[in-house]
Amino acid sequence: MNTAEVIERLQHRKPTILGREHFREFAVLIPLIAVNNETHLLFEVRSKHMRSQPGDVCFPGGRVEQSDKDELHCALRETSEELGIEQTQIRNVIPLDYIVSDFGRIVFPFTGTVENIETINPNSAEVAEVFSVPLRFFLDTKPKAYQVSFKVIPEENFPYHDIQGGRDYNWSTPKMEELFYYYEDRVIWGLTAKIIAHFVALLQD
């Protein structure tokens, strides 16, 4: 293959995330609701029977399925299923920045208003309860931040002889910041807290 063929083959492609086909993709929605004429964020508490993160506070959402047209369709579908509402009750949907995780996950957050909240009937198989927090709380409150360090452990047959330093190679230690919000008796942390912090930063920019 000569240079002209290389250029011809590549010049019209659009860049994406390297290895994206191996990532698991998820979409979530920050539901905005009106409570006594004040904007609140609506949260779910995951059922204790859930295999992943039981009892954690989260936003409605889930994995993007092949049947989903796109990430937005997934966010609307999952919110409708988990809150027991019609998709038509979800309005003014806006995408936020997506998150690419080193753990093989891409998360696409959206926000939007949910109307007729009195009709919310959570799916008990996935949602233990729902609650809301005034948006003002997050605008006025900085999350607490904690660092989590990870240890690099190569597999047993790792070819140390092929790298400089061998077994004494100076691996960089990956770190991740975990955020925590504390509202009354609720603890909101992890990815949910990170999405909230991003959402608040956009509002305050």
List keywords for this structure.
4 helices, eight-stranded mixed beta sheet, 8-oxo-7,8-dihydrodeoxyguanosine triphosphate pyrophosphatase activity, alpha+beta, 11 strands, 205 residues, 20% helix, three-stranded antiparallel beta sheet
How does this model look, in words?
This protein has 205 residues and is an alpha+beta fold. It is 20% helix and 35% strand. It contains four helices and eleven strands, in the order αββββαββββαβββα. Strands 1, 2, 3, 4, 5, 6, 7 and 8 form an eight-stranded mixed β-sheet that branches. Strands 9-10-11 form a three-stranded antiparallel β-sheet. A hairpin with a 2-residue loop joins strand 1 and strand 2. The longest helix is centred in the C-terminal third of the chain and has 15 residues. The model has no long low-confidence stretch (mean pLDDT 94). Keywords: Hydrolase, Magnesium, Manganese, Metal-binding. Its cofactor is Mg(2+); Mn(2+). This is CoA pyrophosphatase.
